[in-house]
């Protein structure tokens, strides 16, 4: 899972059209939680730094302090543009790849109202893109995906909220084709160790240790699921 910090603005260096006040909810929340939202123009400029990844349908993005989703909605808009360009002519493919794109965005947020807003914004974006109503299985599958991909938790302790005894886990979703999705869950705290392991391969010694690395806890899911259709995700 790529840990890429930080929503869609074209690659523009224009100044924000949003007023500064819309980037802050209250002075107290800024003091307590550092809650200042990133304007769309800046989000777009930052995503342009990783343009290819931001446009790749299955690249995984995690925003560890996602707020109401300014970065994640922009990433999703870019991914949806790629889905439309490649699969827009087939409703089946568009919906499955659209769900796959949604499955590749992740967030952690400390404040419950931001978590709810972030999930809601992303869900509406999905529904609009694949043209489904709120009573459809697609909507329900997307809702369930967001309930596990956007976590109410503390990115520093890597524990959930309000129960801070639980370690945060994330599902790794993969689209297998023909309408089937694979899910494997990993603990966030172990995922964060992957960079230290990839340093091994940077030194060219991965062939010596490849087996040991593959058996390392980082690569061991805490739960594996059988392949599922979107209906099974919706009703499972
Ligand atoms: C500066 S705002 C940025 C929000 C969003 N990333 C954006 O750019 O618009 C920081 C966000 O991080 C959240 N936050 C603060 N500490 C956190 C923590 N330890 N774990 C997760 N989220 C946290 C705040 O509630 C706030 O929504």
General description of the model:
The protein is an alpha/beta fold and 236 residues long. The protein has a domain at 20-174. Helices cover 48% and strands 14% of the residues. The chain has helices at residues 27-33, 40-48, 51-55, 70-87, 91-103, 112-130, 137-149, 188-191, 194-202, 206-215, 230-235, and strands at 61-63, 105-109, 150-154, 159-160, 169-177, 180-187, 223-224. The strands form 2 sheets. It has a 4-stranded mixed sheet. A 3-stranded antiparallel sheet has the order 5-6-7. Strand 5 and strand 6 form a beta hairpin. The two termini are 24 Å apart. The structure holds S-adenosylmethionine.
- What is the H/E order? HHHEHHEHHEEEEHHHEH
Number of helices: 11
Give the biggest sheet.
Answer: 4 strands, mixed
Low-confidence stretches: 1-19
Mean residue pLDDT: 86
Q: Give the end-to-end Cα distance, rounded to a whole number of Å.
A: 24 Å
How much of the sequence lies in strands comes to 5-15%
| Alpha-beta classification | alpha/beta
Structure characteristics:
236 residues; alpha/beta; 4-stranded mixed β-sheet; 3-stranded antiparallel β-sheet; 14% strand; disordered N terminus; binds S-adenosylmethionine
Could you give a quick summary of the protein structure above?
With 236 residues, the chain is an alpha/beta fold. It has eleven helices and seven strands.
